[in-house]
Amino acid sequence: MGIFEIIGELVNPGPVGKMDFNDRDYELSQKFIPARFIIALILIGLVEYWIGSHAYHLEDLSYILKANIFLVIYLLLALVVRVQPDCDNLGWVPFLINNPFRLSDNFNRFLVILNILFAPGKYITRSVARFYRYCKRT
Fold first, then answer.
1. On the CB side of 94, how many CA atoms lie within 13 Å of its CA?
2. What's the whole-number mean pLDDT along residues 22-50?
3. Relative to the CA of 64, which of 34, 87, 99, 108 has its CA 20 to 30 Å away?
4. Distance separating alpha carbons of residues 69 and 132, to the nearest angstrom
């Protein structure tokens, strides 16, 4: 954080995105729900395979337990957190060149990265939740 960024934000503050815990679910066509659920199960299976392959012995239950707890926390956070960066304030060439007179573009870029990191977890949790509602209705 440079002195120019602080002075620039004091003179002309830029818009900043937001992050809240009120994620709204949108509707999806009924025919895609089972396919998305299968893809979500494949992704969870790949993650579990990766976790299992890094446990040097199958008796290393502490590593497997810690990794699965981290996975569950990640999925729960991805389910409830909604990240909305302000895409109009990402730098001079969006996301490539930093605006040296604004600090808010750094925060918006951080929100974009968080949005990218939460995207797989959001896909998995929404697919599982929708499949549960789909099976409960039929």
1. 7
2. 86
3. 34
4. 22
